[in-house]
Amino acid sequence: MSEQLIMNPHRTLAISTDSILSCSPTSRNGFHIAIVCALPIEADAIIAAFGIYWEDHGLLYDKAYGDPNAYSTGVIGRHNVVVAHMPSMGKASAASVAVNLRLSFPKIELVLVAGTCGCSPKTSEGDEIILGDVIISTGVVQYDLGHRMPEGFKSKKKILDSLGRPNTELRSIVNKIQGIRGRKKLRNNIAECLAQFQGVPELEAEYPGIEEDRLFQAEYCHRIDGKSCKECGCDGEKLIPRVRLNTNHQVVEHFGLIASGDTVLMSGRDRDILTQEENVIGFEMEGAGVWDNYPCVVIKGACDYADSHKNEKWRRYAAATSAACVKAFLNSWVPGNSESRILSGPEVGPSSAVIFDGNQEILHQRSQPRFTNTPQEILEPNNTLRDPEIFGEMKHVKGLKLIR
Ligand SMILES: [Zn+2]
User: Fold this and answer.
1) Is 113 helix (H, G, I), strand (E, B) or coil?
2) What is the DSSP letter of 131?
3) Ligand 1 midpoint to CA 173 (Å)
4) How far is the CA of 381 from the centre of ligand 1 (A)?
């Protein structure tokens, strides 16, 4: 039986190829979670969170005839996931990807829209949002849906009505994560995963620096298009002081409404109106395209303040914080028929039930005396997997060996 070291900072296991293959879904029906990304750098960050990349093991799940989407398949935490790569930004493109996704992966139950977004400087509760923070949707609104009147554009009066609420299951899990324990766990998981990303030079996921996080007064416009604020001399006296930048800029998650539209919002004034009137805290272009097709959560890293001073300096860092939060979110995600697909048991417990995710889970288990030897021991308490379609029989999942 051959062994190989999987080259990923998340993975520190030597896993036999046979063992990996025995855990793979037997068909595209074995995938229940999809992640939609608009930009390649956003997908790069998500794929960096893979514990297993199925293509690396010769498993090409292909796609249905007529489906134009491009996919990557792998494992994040304890879930098989498929990443749908969008051909371009915007909600029409996202809607098309979502519709075609169903052709190839008909059993998808949850879609996460990941990547980057603009953000409000503050939540409706007055909490500061700084660049790199993560916005998690409690609802998505189409802010560009409304009426073009002679006197100007009027959005729908009740913007919440433009798209439906998340389903009961999603609302429940999001509410759970918003609790004290849920937030603490999520925040710790994000920090841990982000640190791992920052060990991958290609991701360029380093924090850009507090001096690059510049929030201008809403009415103050960028001076010259195509040039950076520094190049065109945007007035530093118009900057609004941010408290968190001087204390702790650890990534913080914010739950709230996300405004989704086909235009890039680059107006501090419009941003503030939407925030004040509709409690919107994030601005992006894909969520609305997916929302009506699937149970959906938008998880995006803030890379600008949705004003005219926006630039690309924060894109990669925000993509990384989004991906870290996606992984953290999936750690908390328990599908309705979880018994059929989760490797858990009374002695292992759901939070440490992941087999292949190397660093994060297995090393945690190493710190516990009864898990100090091989993962076979970890697998003993629950060595029957209930759904062979998803991972194969658990009894085949042998041969894992820690290499440090
Ligand atoms: Zn500027």
Assistant:
1) strand
2) T
3) 39
4) 59
